[in-house]
Design brief:
Largest sheet: 3 strands, antiparallel
Strand order of the largest sheet: 1-2-3
Distance between the termini: 84 Å
Radius of gyration: 29 Å
Helix content: 25-40%
Shape: globular
Order of helices and strands: HHHHHHEEEHEEHHHHHHEE
Oligomer: single chain
């Protein structure tokens, strides 16, 4: 709406009143808006941005005039054709960049994060402990940045079981982007949980140090960054919860503190959790039970993501370079992020398998994925000639 209002003020010098504007007049404005709107730096908006702008205008217009329909109204047919033509022209001329999804955290950076939190159970740094709890809760429940985190209360984390079987689940069904509630909504239960004994113990320690008069899960620490408190002090936090903006920048803070290769966002952590579940072979419909996606088709962008190392392996395969145990396509196990990978025993290295195929025949596929039930197995596919049907003999033979 702000973009549309700014365009109207700049091009026509007026502000559109949706309560009184007529359909034909708004349609004429939209025709020029779709064709000429630009960013402040004079670059074009992406396809999704233009479509989102039209949806926002429809929501705003229907609030003041319920009968007005920007999507399918007779007055807006020409405006929609203009938008369709603009999008097709951008696609044809190569002016539409690829969608840039938030990339997951790399295995190297994941290892750095584990090392950064390595002493969290022994130190008395409330800021580091708070960041650790935020990281664990956000990763295991796939929470969107700022959407639910600022509303989380102490009682929303439910501790179940005893001893080594103790786990943490989310006990509250929050409103989210995909689950708005209401008469058409449905009850949703997050399948996410925290079962690691060390993580459970650190979260219990964190909750024992929270301010008793604040029900929020994430609170402001008493200390400055890098300072520690007395372990015997009953409360490490003040009577004030963390703000929405502070929680939105938690992954940015962790990127700086842990010395990561780039600055990640909160949504990168959500994407990482999804990628780790996919690596372990968990079905998409079960992943949706953790992430809250309504349809497993929304997980398709996570299937398309590959890191730079995997892209290089794809290039080697296309160039018909020999596949070896180190160049074979594989996805490392998430558990490998905690330390160096354990070498897999190689009874028959992939390099020693002879290949007699021509450049136009299959060169085989070597798999050395950790956690698999096989290693360095090469499948050589050779086309087989169809066998001739044998002549029938006996009393039922023809002829």
């Amino acid at each position: 709406m702000r973009v549309f209002e700014a365009y109207c003020l700049e091009s026509k010098g007026v502000k559109i009143d949706f309560a009184t504007v007529e359909g034909p007049d708004l349609a004429c404005i939209l025709e020029r808006f779709y064709a000429n709107v630009r960013k402040p730096d004079n670059t074009e908006y992406r396809r999704n941005s233009l479509i989102a702008a039209r949806s926002a205008l429809q929501r705003h217009a229907s609030t003041h005039q319920p009968a007005m329909n920007i999507f399918s109204g007779d007055h807006f047919q020409k405006a929609n054709k203009v938008l369709d033509a603009v999008l097709k022209e951008k696609k044809r001329d190569g002016r539409e960049p690829q969608v840039q999804h938030k990339k997951p955290i790399t295995d190297e950076d994941w290892t750095k994060i584990q090392h950064y939190f390595g002493d969290v159970s022994t130190t008395c740094d409330p800021r580091k402990l708070s960041l650790y709890v935020w990281f664990a809760v956000s990763a295991h429940f796939c929470l969107r940045g700022g959407e639910i985190q600022c509303k989380l209360r102490k009682q929303d984390l439910l501790f179940e079981g005893e001893g080594v079987n103790k786990k943490i689940t989310l006990s509250t069904d929050f409103m989210s982007k995909n689950h708005r509630g209401g008469l058409k909504g449905s009850e949703t239960t997050s399948a996410g949980c925290i079962t690691d004994a060390e993580q459970v113990a650190n979260i219990e320690r964190y909750m024992s140090k929270l301010h008793p008069e604040v029900d929020r899960l994430f609170q402001r620490a008493k200390t400055s960054p890098g300072m520690s408190l007395n372990a015997d002090l009953a409360c490490w936090f003040i009577n004030s919860p963390l703000s929405h903006n502070k929680l939105d920048s938690m992954m940015k803070l962790l990127s700086e503190n842990a010395g990561l290769s780039c600055q990640y966002t909160n949504h990168c952590l959500r994407a990482t959790s999804i990628m780790h579940m996919k690596r372990c072979g968990i079905e998409d419909r079960k992943i949706c039970a953790v992430t809250g996606h309504k349809n497993k088709n929304f997980l398709v962008p996570y299937n398309n993501w590959v890191n730079e190392m995997e892209s290089a392996k794809f290039a080697d395969a296309i160039d018909l370079k020999p596949l070896s145990a180190t160049s074979a396509l594989c996805l490392p196990s998430p558990a490998a992020a905690a330390g160096p990978a354990t070498p897999v025993s190689q009874s028959t290295p992939a390099e020693s398998v002879p290949s007699t195929s021509t450049p136009f025949e299959s060169q085989g596929f070597a798999c050395n994925a950790q956690g698999a039930h096989f290693s360095n197995v090469v499948f050589n596919v050779t086309p087989c000639k169809p066998q001739k049907k044998k002549a029938a003999f006996g009393p039922h033979a023809k002829g």
